[in-house]
Amino acid sequence: MSAIPYDTLRPMLRDQRILLVGGAGFIGHNLALELARMGATVQIVDNLMVNSLIENAFAGEQDTVQRTAYRNFLNERFALLRAEGVSLRNADARLLVDLSRVFEEFQPTKVVHLAAIASAVDANAEPGLCFDLQLITLRNTLELVRPKVDQINQVMFLSSSTVYGDFKGDSVDETTFPRPEGIYANAKFMGERLVRTYRRQYGLGVTVVRPSALYGERCISRRVSQMFIENALTGKPLLLEGGGDGRLDFTYIKDLVQGQVRALALHGGPEQSNTFNLTYGDARTIADIAAIVRDIVPEAILEERPRAVEKPIRGTLSTERAKRILGFEPEYDIESGYRRYCAWYVDAWRRAEREANLT
Ligand SMILES: NC(=O)c1ccc[n+]([C@@H]2O[C@H](COP(=O)([O-])OP(=O)(O)OC[C@H]3O[C@@H](n4cnc5c(N)ncnc54)[C@H](O)[C@@H]3O)[C@@H](O)[C@H]2O)c1
Question: What is the pTM of this model?
Answer without folding.
Answer: 0.97
